[in-house]
C-alpha cells in the first residue's frame, strides 16, 4: 500500500489544527481583518496555511513524522535504486521486490559461510 493513502496520526492532526488556529488569529490580526475574511480572500487563505505549516515544521519532530509518513523508503539492498514497497515482519528492512529480498538473504548466508570457513 502506498504511504500517501495513510491518514495523519491524531497527534499530528491536533498539532496542525492548533497551528492553523494560531496562524489564522495572527494573520488576521496583523492585517486588521476578521478571521472570517479567510473565506473570501484566496491570498489570506494561502498566507494562513503557509504560516501554519512553517510554524508546525519548525519542530524537528513534525518534519520527521511527515517524512516517515509520506517519503518513499529506499530498498534495503545496497545496489538497488528502487523505492521499497514491502517489509518483512520483525525487521526494520524494506524491499522493492521479493527477488531483492532473496538476494540480500543469500548474500548474508554467503558472508556467514565465509566467516565460518575462514
Largest sheet: 2 strands, antiparallel
The helix-strand sequence is HHHEEH
What class, by secondary structure content? mainly alpha
Q: Describe the global form.
A: rod-shaped
What topology, given as strand order, has the largest sheet? 1-2
Terminus-to-terminus distance: 43 Å
Query: Beta fraction of the residues?
Result: under 5%
**Unreliable segments (pLDDT under 50, ≥5 consecutive)?**
none
The tally of helices reads 4
- Provide the gyration radius in Å: 23 Å
Percent of residues in helices comes to 55-70%
Structure overview:
The chain has 118 residues and is mainly alpha-helical. The chain is 58% helix and 3% strand. It contains four helices and two strands. It has helices at 10-30, 42-57, 60-70, 98-117, and strands spanning 86-87, 94-95. The protein has a two-stranded antiparallel ribbon. α1 (10-30) crosses α2. The mean pLDDT is 84.
What is shown here, in short?
By secondary structure, the protein is mostly helical. Helices cover 58% and strands 3% of the residues.
Topology:
Blueprint (H helix, E strand, L loop, with lengths): L9 H21 L11 H16 L2 H11 L15 E2 L6 E2 L2 H20 L1
Antiparallel strand pairs: 1-2
Question: How would you describe this structure in keywords?
Answer:
two-stranded antiparallel sheet; 118 residues; 4 helices; mainly alpha
